[in-house]
Design goal:
This is DH domain-containing protein. By secondary structure, this protein is mainly α. The chain is 79% helix and 0% strand. Helix 1 packs antiparallel against helix 3, helix 1 runs antiparallel to helix 9 and helix 9 packs antiparallel against helix 10. The longest helix has 47 residues.
């Protein structure tokens, strides 16, 4: 096999691996958004409607469980997902996208750093859930019933998903760097965002 043939095969291999990693980013992002939707549909929204109707939930308690950042997180991640989908489809069709994957993540870097506020609050959220388990049986029974509707996802398991998501971004983007051409602007963008987006989130 000639050196030229080996180089072409290596390039095709890297391109294929790159697309696979991009698809994994998209697939996991879609799953993440689904879990945020379950959180809203089966826990946050119906529980808010019970404030003033049921003694087991009050506005202060609700605010301890559901932070306002969740609304922003869900909205912005939905926008991020749709931009990434558009980029992926163009790359898969061998077209030049308006923005690279790296540029898209860099664009959302300030928002992703904003996850830090939610991370810092999560221990308090967890403590609130533990207190509910021990001291608020009516609410715990309601949460247990909702879990059956929410694809068997417990409230705590859904609330922790933003905490788990950002390290996952870093892991996948680090993998993406390995299969991006060293002379490509895409490498610069992706490599930069692995060092920029997540510095305050680890």
């Amino acid at each position: 096999m000639s050196i030229g043939t080996q180089a072409v095969e290596s390039k095709h291999h890297k391109s294929g691996q790159r697309l696979n990693i991009m698809k994994e980013i998209l697939d996991t992002e879609k799953n993440y958004l689904t879990e945020l939707e379950l959180l809203e549909e089966y826990y946050a929204k119906p529980l808010k409607e019970l404030i003033g109707k049921q003694k087991f939930i009050t506005q202060p308690l609700y605010n301890k469980i559901f932070k306002g950042d969740l609304v922003i997180i869900r909205k912005t991640n939905s926008e991020l997902y749709h931009e990434l989908i558009e980029n992926f489809e163009m790359e898969r069709a061998n077209k030049v996208p308006n923005k690279t994957f790296g540029q898209i993540f860099l664009q959302y870097a300030p928002f992703i750093k904003g996850y830090t506020r939610y991370f810092n609050e999560f221990d308090n959220i967890n403590s609130t859930l533990e207190d509910i388990r021990k001291n608020n049986k009516p609410l715990q029974l309601w949460l247990d019933a909702q879990r059956k509707e929410a694809r068997n996802k417990p409230l705590g398991g859904l609330l922790i998903t933003p905490v788990q998501r950002v390290p996952r971004y870093k892991l996948l983007l680090t993998e993406l760097v390995k299969y991006t051409s060293p002379i490509s602007q895409r490498l610069s963008n992706v490599d930069q965002c692995t060092h920029t987006n997540f510095r305050s989130c680890n």
